[in-house]
């Protein structure tokens, strides 16, 4: 796999997490609780962290939210969760950080949007005030430009310049330039105020996939700041997953991106952790990082009229992911394991042999037995009504023998 890596010589420290400078691409997420509700916010941060989110952003939009941040940090620490908390500020961040210094100190990073940090003459002094707080409390800042809240002054200036050209560019092209320019100019101002490059992360988010790719290619060619990737609003369900996968995979394959977030609209009543799982799976399927054992399973066809293999694949996949909060420390390396759950004799034995451990279930009309392969060798043939339970037990024994303390010894 050929990957053109972007050269960033500095790293940004966000709490205990390193961003850029050769560090692994970091998975982020964001709560959707009312931050003023300390209990609900702490519970969701823990849920996201246990799913694998390496930093969690919270909305800090009111005095009540700002007051709650130190208590949220304290409760997380007392529960043994050190995941960094990022404060998301819009419109009034300068006032909240000034009035609530404990909030400013408790957060691990500030997120500032140049498009709504202040309007007109208020913009520059309010932006400066935010950066000065970051310098005072030694906090990194993500300067996050959004297409939906682009600084109108920057866009107006570039539109005026464009109109004066012999061959003016389309509005979409000028808007893309304005998004990049807003980020770069804001970063330059932050450095002038005193914030070092090792405290700055940039993002330029928009919802259109091709526009996002073009914007980040332009941005990355013009700076060496650490970059955060993500669509502004990815959407719901498969649309959001596909859009995010398409955009971020192209950019990361080019070496662009140091942190990512998948901004999925949650299905009604569903867990917020879905965005974390999708981010991890994009990174893992692209070969950048490993988070949990991967289950390889076939789509099914006329040879697999039973749904048994589908249920077993789902059961094993859920089981493996649920165990990872414990296994991550108990069985180092297990996240790189592959498990195959196949539905018939066509590809079943071959795929099972290629995985660390695999099972080839009988298809329609085949002998009702299921051979199990470990590291390419058939070790047992399962049959009867307890194939699922017996295979899970075999997976557990494999993990213990290959990744446990005895295996290391």
UniProtKB/TrEMBL annotation:
Origin organism of this chain? Answer: Methylomicrobium album BG8
Coiled-coil boundaries: none
On cofactor binding, the record's note says: Binds 1 [4Fe-4S] cluster.
- Listed cofactors: [4Fe-4S] cluster
Sorted alphabetically, which InterPro entries does this protein's record hold?
Dihydropteroate_synth-like_sf (IPR011005), IspG_bac (IPR016425), IspG_bac-typ (IPR004588), IspG_C (IPR058579), IspG_TIM (IPR058578), NO2/SO3_Rdtase_4Fe4S_sf (IPR045854)
Q: Which HAMAP family match?
A: IspG (MF_00159)
The protein's role, per its UniProt record: Converts 2C-methyl-D-erythritol 2,4-cyclodiphosphate (ME-2,4cPP) into 1-hydroxy-2-methyl-2-(E)-butenyl 4-diphosphate.
IspG C-terminal domain residues: 295-396
Q: What keywords tag this UniProt record? A: 4Fe-4S, Iron, Iron-sulfur, Isoprene biosynthesis, Metal-binding, Oxidoreductase
Please give the biological process terms from Gene Ontology that the record holds. isopentenyl diphosphate biosynthetic process, methylerythritol 4-phosphate pathway; terpenoid biosynthetic process
Q: Give the similarity note.
A: Belongs to the IspG family.
Q: What is its EC number?
A: 1.17.7.3
Q: One Pfam family this chain carries?
A: GcpE
Catalytic activity reported: (2E)-4-hydroxy-3-methylbut-2-enyl diphosphate + oxidized [flavodoxin] + H2O + 2 H(+) = 2-C-methyl-D-erythritol 2,4-cyclic diphosphate + reduced [flavodoxin]
Indicate the segments forming the IspG TIM-barrel domain, all copies: 9-279
Can you tell me where the transmembrane regions are?
Answer: none
- The organism's lineage? Bacteria, Pseudomonadati, Pseudomonadota, Gammaproteobacteria, Methylococcales
Query: Could you tell me what this protein is called?
Result: 4-hydroxy-3-methylbut-2-en-1-yl diphosphate synthase (flavodoxin)
Where is [4Fe-4S] cluster bound in this sequence? 298, 301, 344, 351
Query: Which Gene Ontology molecular function entries are recorded, alphabetically?
Result: 4 iron, 4 sulfur cluster binding; 4-hydroxy-3-methylbut-2-en-1-yl diphosphate synthase activity (ferredoxin); 4-hydroxy-3-methylbut-2-enyl-diphosphate synthase activity (flavodoxin); iron ion binding
Q: Its pathway?
A: Isoprenoid biosynthesis; isopentenyl diphosphate biosynthesis via DXP pathway; isopentenyl diphosphate from 1-deoxy-D-xylulose 5-phosphate: step 5/6
